[in-house]
Write a structure and sequence with these properties.
The protein has no helices and seven strands. The protein is mainly β. The protein starts with about 30 loop residues before the first strand and ends in a 25-residue tail after the last strand.
């Protein structure tokens, strides 16, 4: 049986789990593949860019961020629904990802991590070697 190749074929089964404590939150993510890379978008609204940490260790990509509550002197909070604290997401990377060339950008509350696909894992054409074409047979008329 032929199976379509994807570096994250088990992405549906990957557990994006909180780290350290139950107070850690999971950020919403999108993951898609283009011809040359896999792109991870992580929602981190209200997070200071300086608190974002992206690292790769042993084939695991980890995104950590800290969302802090604003401190307003003399304020009495009437409602507080926006979550604060640590945000952590983990993703197991395929061997087909070029981990030396991973790039990240944070804009408008969304962290975009670009994971380039290694050259060896990109689709390619395979030349078929064989005999010379068969000679044409003349018809006997």
């Amino acid at each position: 049986m032929t199976v379509a190749y994807t570096p994250f074929r088990d992405a549906r089964r990957v557990a994006f789990s909180p780290e350290f404590s139950p107070a850690s939150r999971l950020a919403a993510v999108d993951l898609y593949r283009t011809d040359d890379s896999v792109v991870l978008s992580v929602d981190l609204p209200g997070v200071d860019a300086g608190s974002i940490d992206v690292d790769v260790d042993g084939g695991i990509l980890t995104v950590r961020a800290q969302r802090t509550a604003p401190s307003i002197e003399g304020a009495t909070w009437l409602s507080r629904e926006r979550q604060t604290g640590a945000v952590v997401r983990k993703l197991r990377l395929s061997e087909s990802i070029d981990t030396d060339s991973i790039a990240a950008d944070y804009a408008n509350g969304v962290l975009t991590v670009t994971l380039p696909v290694a050259e060896k894992a990109k689709p390619r054409k395979v030349a078929v070697a064989g005999m010379a074409p068969a000679p044409e047979v003349a018809s006997a008329e």
